[in-house]
Queue: 2 jobs
Job 1
Amino acid sequence: NAGVTQTPKFRVLKTGQSMTLLCAQDMNHEYMYWYRQDPGMGLRLIHYSVGEGTTAKGEVPDGYNVSRLKKQNFLLGLESAAPSQTSVYFCASRGGGVASSYNEQFFGPGTRLTVL
Amino acid sequence: GENVEQHPSTLSVQEGDSAVIKCTYSDSASNYFPWYKQELGKRPQLIIDIRSNVGEKKDQRIAVTLNKTAKHFSLHITETQPEDSAVYFCAAGPAGYQKVTFGIGTKLQVIP
């Protein structure tokens, strides 16, 4: 199993450009998450999904959109990139339910995005 | 919503000493408290978690304690080793949660 994968690993954008980050998981997980990690600010939730076809806003959703058309994929879009969106983006997934085995979030390797 | 505060932001210890990282949370509905470790350039990975019906949990050299009345929980690492050097994140959320809230992280440096 590949676990959680992210595409691309690195990207440089100019202000105003758009792009889509792809997250894929092969663990049949219900829940998927997009975080951004900035120095001194920890992991902040952008958007998340509790199942195929559903999405919800997290702490810092402005400037981002998401889609979960297939259970295994969660896409993060930047319509008009800004320098403030320079960050490392992590995707994560976890199983559904309240059992202990379902609580762990499995993270992808991250995407380093620079907006000039 | 939930607010998680974590301190210290950086911590240096001599190899073999103990390290303690503390977190507080605000939402009394939270009852699931995981800790993640992130090595330099790597992804965060779960190292231990605790639920509110348990006051302490141990796994070899790491332990987590929870004081639900005071709304704080702590990570204890004993006999630290250089490979323990990493950033540690605490988090809080309700069991069966849709999402958890992370602290800002603690950068632990173990000096050989």
Note: Residues 67 and 73 of chain B are 6 Å apart (CA to CA).
Job 2
Amino acid sequence: KAGVTQTPRYLIKTRGQQVTLSCSPISGHRSVSWYQQTPGQGLQFLFEYFSETQRNKGNFPGRFSGRQFSNSRSEMNVSTLELGDSALYLCASSLEPGPASPTQYFGPGTRLTVL
Amino acid sequence: ILNVEQSPQSLHVQEGDSTNFTCSFPSSNFYALHWYRWETAKSPEALFVMTLNGDEKKKGRISATLNTKEGYSYLYIKGSQPEDSATYLCAFGGSQGNLIFGKGTKLSVKP
């Protein structure tokens, strides 16, 4: 079974631009979560999607948005990029969401650099 | 604000040493505690999910315990090997719905 895939793996943008990152979950997984990791910080939760609906959102500004398609693939978008958005963006998929938090399977991440 | 703390931040041990790390989490509204291993240039890999107070899980030389009443979990590695070098993350699953991760413990095992 193929794992979680993320594209692109590396991205360089300049301040003020926007960017779209893509995540394809493991086949059969319907829940996708997105995380941001910056140096010295743990994985910061961005949002979670299930059945094309955003179930949960972390404490990030409205410049960060996402969506999920009917095939469970998910995209996240960051508009008006700032230097501080430079980070590793990870997505993770699970069979379903829920407070019992089933195991999440992570992709390799997209390394975004904002110049 | 829900907080998950891990200690120590980093650890250097010799091959063959046994070691352990701590994860502290909120003791209320608990649903699950996850441990992940994250090797450099790879994706975080799930080790354990624990849901009941007193749970103990084992995978080879790695084991974990859970105390939900006092809000802590220990991860133990017996006879560390160089391939155990990684960052170990714990994550708290509570009524907020999403996982809250600690900053991790970075383990380096010297041959």
Note: Residues 46 and 58 of chain A are 5 Å apart (CA to CA).
